[in-house]
Amino acid sequence: MMQTAILLVIAIGAGVLVYLFDGPWWIYVIATVAVLLFAYLFVYLFPKVRWVRWRYEVRESEIELQHGLFIVKRTLIPMVRVQHVDTAQGPILRKYNLAEITISTAATNHTIPALITEEADDLRGRISVLARVAVDDV
Amino acid sequence: MSNNRYKLHWITAVIEVLKTLKEMIIPLVVLVFANGLKDLGTGKWYIDYASFIIFGILIVTFFITGVIKWKRFEYWFEEDELRIEYGLFVKKKRYIPFDRIQSLDYTEGILHRPLKLVKVKVETAGSSSAKKSEAELTAITKDAAKRIEMEIAEAKNRRKAIPVEQSELVEELRIEESVQVKSIFALSAKDLFILATTSGGIGVILSGAAIFLSQFSEMIPFEWMYEEVSGFIKYGLVIVAIVVFLGFVVVWGLSVAMTFLSYYGFSVALEGQDIVIARGLLEKKRMTVPLNRVQSVRIVENPVRQLFGYAAVVIDSAGGGGAEGAKINLFPLVKKAAINGSLQEIFPELVLDEPNNKLPVRGKRFYYRIDFLWMAPTVGALIYFFFPYGLLSLFIIPVIILFGLWQHRSAAYKIAGNQLTVRFRGFSLQTTFLMKKRIQSMEMKQNYFHKRKHVATLATSIKSGMGSFRAQVFHMEESEAERILSWYEKSINKKEQQE
User: What integer best gives the mean pLDDT of chain B?
Assistant: First the structure.
């Protein structure tokens, strides 16, 4: 969204410059196409693919996350390493009854964005119970 | 338990004042120079010298606050806690349970040395801020420091004495161990020279000098047409070369001096369950790292040192905050052959074998292909804008490719029991030994091209101080990455079933 807005500003700037200095007409076309393409990719397609690709699984002894657009990341977090779980909800997320959940280990943070609030709360509870039960092994 | 309240040594006030002055030096200088040097000539002395008067008042204020801070600072032991009370306007109390104290680090500054004092930093597991330790006793006598240590040890023993019936044997062993002090490692003067010469700082300076020189040599052909001038330039070049060389020698000398200051008398000893590192010429530092706080052991070889068979050993500690607390130079410089013996003494359970699983050939291209993304436009632009000389930039392509191949060849990994050994090269070669229980999370990354070639990047995160350290093997065999991932996953399940 933000990048698109910035690009739009740049494109408008280019358009104004072309208008002022009587530049060739095709610059308008390039600017328009660039903005539209960018908007399509970054506002529609990429988030959609990201959303479709997002997977998470909370098992008894570990949490597995998989996500990514070009680079698919598979992350494994053992329950014993989980230090705490947070859920957070901004104004936009709240409007759609969504929340994000952040799982923290001693060294890293892992966020699952935009879960349904009840699901996020439930997950937070489950992880915290499982993390409490899990016993340090090695 | 004594309820005596202890004070710091009076030198604390002086140190405090000097510290405040050091922090305030820039505003003070600005103040004095901005106002003090121009003569207002109003005839009234208190306006003419206003800045000096302010300056004087400030210094006096600093001094008074320093003294008050020192007067107010008290520490004592109560209910197995180290209790500290301090504060100038707001009185602050801080109670630190002995159990939470990870280590006491000693520093002896120039002011401490003649009076046989030490500065004690109390390190706990999670220091609230990254830079400061939990508590700092600016200056106390060595006897007082001993007393703190004894209080803590006593309290810990007392605590242990309760379940002692059940595990008497273990207890005895522990006490016996805690007496033992085993010296592991020391740096000689010769080592210090090599350390200074091969450290990164010199490299930066050297390359800087090289760029400087190349600038001058590029100027010669341009001026060559004017013979007279060229003669002068040539003569000038000799001078420049000499100056640069001298500058290099000076820098090297500085580097040696700095190294001597901070690493003189570097020694590592094992005291029971703690690693004790002492170093420093003017300012003596003594740092304690409990063994169970060590998160990873890394052997770092920069190319120059690798050439001469030297390496450095770094450990990551979970305790303490900030960069200094987290990444600790265990052996700043050591012969590669001598590493295994000394390391094994400290970490007997560590498997120090060379990682022998190499990466597949088909992952090779990934090491340099991504670089074309920035290389192609850069080289293209250089050729376009600086036509004849721009072609020289083409040389960067084989250099980058060779570097990538070098990284590919260096990378390796190995699983040995509960330990993962990972070797990778950024510029320096790093061999990281990770215990499974220290790995906080593991990640496998694959992009579209990776998937087609069945390779993957594996990243492991461990805790290092407040932050984390990531050890990554790039572009390894996909099935192997999955094997490591399931290795990480499996034993956790297995343990679960045992219960």
Answer: 78
Gap between the Cα atoms of B57 and B28, Å rounded = 12
Question: Cα–Cα distance between B375 and B395 in angstroms, integer?
Answer: 11
Task: Provide the whole-model pTM.
Answer: 0.72
pLDDT of residue B3 exceeding 70: no
Give the Cα separation of B262 and B324 in Å (integer): 13
Grade residue A65 by pLDDT with cuts at 50, 70 and 90: very high
Contact A108 B444 (CB under 8 A): no
Percentage of residues of chain B with pLDDT beyond 90: 0
Nearest residue, CB atoms, B491 vs list A73, A105, A137: A137
Residues of A in contact with B463 (CB under 8 A): 105-107
Pairing of strands B284-290, B274-279: antiparallel
- Which of B443, B448, B491 has the CB atom closest to A74's CB atom? B443
**B58-84: burial string, b at 16+ Cβ within 10 Å, e else:** beeebbebbbebbeebebbbeebbbbb
Taking CA atoms, B33 is separated from B18, B24, B29, B383, in Å, by 21, 14, 6, 51
pLDDT of amino acid B34: 64
CA distance B175 to A103: 40
If interface means Cβ-Cβ distance under 8 Å, which residues of chain A face chain B?
60-62, 68, 70-81, 105-108, 110, 134-138
The reply to whether B349 touches chain A by the CB within 8 Å rule is no
A63: part of which helix (H) or strand (E)?
Answer: strand A62-67
Range with lowest mean pLDDT among A112-126, B50-64, B292-306:
B50-64
Q: Is the ipTM value over 0.85, yes or no?
A: no
Q: For residue B461, give the nearest of A74, A108, A138 by CB distance.
A: A108
**Is the Cβ of B444 closer than 8 Å to some Cβ of chain A?**
yes
Helix ranges (H only) for B288-446 are 303-307, 322-326, 336-346, 366-369, 372-385, 387-390, 396-410
| Pairs of residues, one from chain A and one from chain B, whose beta carbons lie less than 8 Å apart | 80
What mean pLDDT do residues B179-202 have? Answer: 76
Instruction: Compute the distance between CA of residue A129 and CA of residue A131 in angstroms, rounded to an integer.
Output: 5
- Please give the average per-residue pLDDT across B386-403, as a whole number: 82
pLDDT in tens, B4-38: 788 888 888 888 888 888 887 777 777 666 665 55
Contact between residue B455 and residue B363 where contact means Cβ atoms under 8 Å apart: yes
Residue B164: pLDDT above 50?
no
Q: Is B116 left (phi over 0), alpha (psi -120 to 50) or beta?
A: left
Which has more confidence, B216 or A3? Answer: A3
Six-digit token string for B7 = 């004070």
The sheet carrying B135-141 orders its strands as B135-141, B117-124, B101-108, B284-290, B274-279, B267-271, B181-186
Q: Tell me the domain boundaries of chain B.
A: 6-179, 189-263, 267-359+411-498, 361-407
Q: Tokens representing B487?
A: 């290795």
